[in-house]
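fold-stage: in
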Amino acid sequence: MFSLVRLISEVILRSSMNDSTSAEKWWKDSMVLIGIFLPSSIWLVMYLSLSLKIAWISFPCGVLVGFFLWLIALGYENPRMAKATFIGVIINLILASISAYFAFF
């Protein structure tokens, strides 16, 4: 089963490498968009559902989700997704810091 999944991912990787026009546009890569927006969307959901003062707790959640997204990026050998996940966690850190400022100061 694992070899079948690996074969399918290699075929998809080769076809995406041959299409150089889509490889240059990062905003068309769904994995990159997930890596950027998923950690920060955790903060947004907490902000909308709970409050600004409680949304600081989204940082540990965003780091944990970002870590597993980063592992997925390493597994698929997708450095662009790994960088985007790191950027998404940094955005989550900034938003959670703003929430922590309002909660504790």
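fold-stage: in (second)
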Amino acid sequence: MTEADIQCLKDNIDKLVEIRTVDAECLIAKIQIVTDDDEYHVHDVMYEVISSNQIDTYAHLENSGGYLLDFVEIVSVKPIPQPQVVSLTPE
């Protein structure tokens, strides 16, 4: 994971991103919290799973608050473009 990936996570709080992991998981996640703290050696992201190619991994977990993923487990991060809101009322 690069510095650009970390910044992408930070820039997309409450938004959707695609995350690829070292376990070959590709997931769409809504980012909740990004912790990048060198002093306490905490580098992880809390997220809500939207979809995953390994969704069975989450089936046995009863966690409605989100999941944690350590930075070392992340290969890449890509933002997912947000849909544009178009007003249908004339100005």
